Amino acid sequence: YYNSLQKISKIKSHIKNPWDLATGEEGILADVETIFSEGELESDFKRQKIYFKGAKAGRQIQVQYEKTIINPYLIPIFHFDQEYPATKTIFQITAAKDIEIGYFTFNLDSIDINFTKSELDGKINYTWEANNVFPVETETHGPGIFALSPMIIPYVKSFNYNGKTSYLLDTPKELHKWYI
Q1: Which residue of 37, 64, 99, 162 is most buried, as measured by CB atoms within 10 A?
Q2: 39-48: per-residue pLDDT in tens?
Q3: What is the three-class DSSP state of 9?
Q4: DSSP readout, 61-97?
C-alpha cells in the first residue's frame, strides 16, 4: 500500500525454486488499484498486487522495492509482521549525511532483529533485519494491531541545508509547531 505522498519503484519479485536457488519464477505485477476512503486524511491509498502462478505452500517468495518519501513529515510506519510469515524482512532507510533520522521502536523484543547503521557513498543507511517473523494474531476485545505489532516509526529530526540546520521533529515542541 502507498499513496501520493510516496513513490514506489524498482519492484522485484520471484519465487525461489527450493531445489535450485539459481532459478525461479518472476512475479507478475498487476495494475495498480486505487482505494478511496472518504473523510480520511490520506484518502488516495493505492495497492500494488503481485501474482505468482507457481506459489505453493513451502515455497519462498521474495519481494523487494524502494519507497521514496515526498513529504518528510509523513514518513510511514513500518510493520515487520505482514499477512504471511516471512523468513527475513529487511527495512532500510537511506538518507543524505546532512539529514538526521530518528525513530521509535515498538515490540521489537518479540522478534529476532538486528540493527546496523553504516555509511556508503556519502549516505547513511539505517537497516533493521528481522528473521522468522509471523503475523500477529489479535483477539476480539483484545489489544489492536498497533499495540502488538513489531514496528518502527521513523522521522526526520533535522537537516542541514547551505550550512544552516533546520529541525523538523527533533522534540515534541517541534512536533506541536507543525500542528499549529
Answers
A1: 99
A2: 445 456 666 6
A3: strand
A4: EEEEEEEEES-GGGPPPEES--SS-EEEEEEEEEEET
d(C-alpha 180, C-alpha 125), whole Å: 32
- Report yes or no: 103 and 155 within 8 Å, Cβ to Cβ: yes
Q: Give the span between the Cα atoms of 92 and 124, in whole angstroms.
A: 10
Judge whether 45 and 2 are in contact, CB under 8 Å.
yes
C-alpha cell read off for 164: 544552516
What is the DSSP pairing of strand 112-120 with strand 123-133?
A: antiparallel
Hey, what amino acid is at 136?
Answer: V
Which residues make beta-bridge pairs with 143?
none
| 144 exposure class (CB count in 10 Å sphere: 0-12, 13-18, 19+) | exposed
170 or 138: which carries more pLDDT confidence?
138
What are φ and ψ of residue 5, in 5° steps? -90, 5
Residue 73 main-chain phi, psi, to 5 deg: -80, -20
Model confidence, pTM: 0.70
Question: Contact 34/46 with Cβ under 8 angstroms?
Answer: yes
